[in-house]
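This part of the workshop introduces the protein records we will be handling. Getting from the letters to the tokens is the skill we practise here. An example says more than a description, so a record of this kind follows:
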Amino acid sequence: MTCPEILQAFQHRFGSTPRLFRAPGRVNLIGEHTDYNDGYVFPMALDRYTTVAVAPRDDRKVRAYSANMEEETTLHLDTLARRGHWSDYVAGIASQLEKRGVRLPGADLFLYSDVPVGSGLSSSAALEISSALAFLSLADSHLPGEELARLGQAAENQFVGMNCGIMDQFIAVHGAQDHALFLDCRSLEYQLVPLPSDHSRIVVCNTMVKHELGASEYNNRRRECEEGVQRMQKHWPAIRALRDLDLEQFTRVEGELDETVRKRCRHVISENERVLESIRSLRSGDLHHFGSLMNASHDSLRDDYQVSCEELDLMVGIARGIPDCLGARMTGGGFGGCTVNLVERSAVDSFCREIGTLYRSRTGLEPAIYISVPSQGAHEWSSTK
């Protein structure tokens, strides 16, 4: 649905004229499972958005209709509680705003997203941030970008129950056209880095699978990283997270860790170093080295962090065998979802055809393939723009 179509659908359903707020999904180019370890990430905002149309009510009810789910639900702002439902992301944002002293009126919401759910492209953060902007508009309130990202993270951590880092919400807020975003997840200092488009394109390939163990295993990985920090603090008491260690330090003490914790720590520490090296590679125009770092990232996620799966490994393997693919890796939390690929611009069309054909022949699944460009972060849509 286009924004004019969403506007018209809202008016037909609720009988009033709304404002429309949008937030993008994201693809992380490199830096996976580093954000909740205070590390470095390098995502870009996608040209795919969750749009929330909103108009006020004169009570404390929120009527929310999802065009994707074809379902309407009613929330009561005075009795918000987790229900294990898609509306938990909306309710979580409302709950966090009320906790921060933002008194909300009731609202009618119409939600539509072309960010694929369950694909690892952060449809949840896109919904959180677009909902936050919608609610804030009703309360005639505003939050700075960093606080808006923290609000979305808190909703997911404390209400939905996913112990995620801040990367997804941060890029949903701060994404910029033609740029990826290099983020220090501890300080929240960030730099917009131009993505050269003269010679390459980012291609996202959706495996069309999502294994159910993803959420529980995500929380397990976080606990395993925290255990590694605790064990290594006897050597370096001042460290707070894995980002405080480099590989040279780690190799001196890794023998003291059990195998699982050792693998988890090695991935995070080496991934942080790959992110920093990737930024240097891009700034020097060395796309081939950047691609090789993407390859190394996937291998580490597969072997050390163990969050890949058969379909992701197959998709990555196919991509690496196609000429003019400079690098390929899984992206997102893992256990299904998408891969991200750096492809020579002149070969994009043939790459998309070949990877689709080969993946389909091996799995019987029809992959969704998106040629992506870095896009604008969260904003209000206006018909006059």
Remarks:
- The longest helix spans residues 259-283.
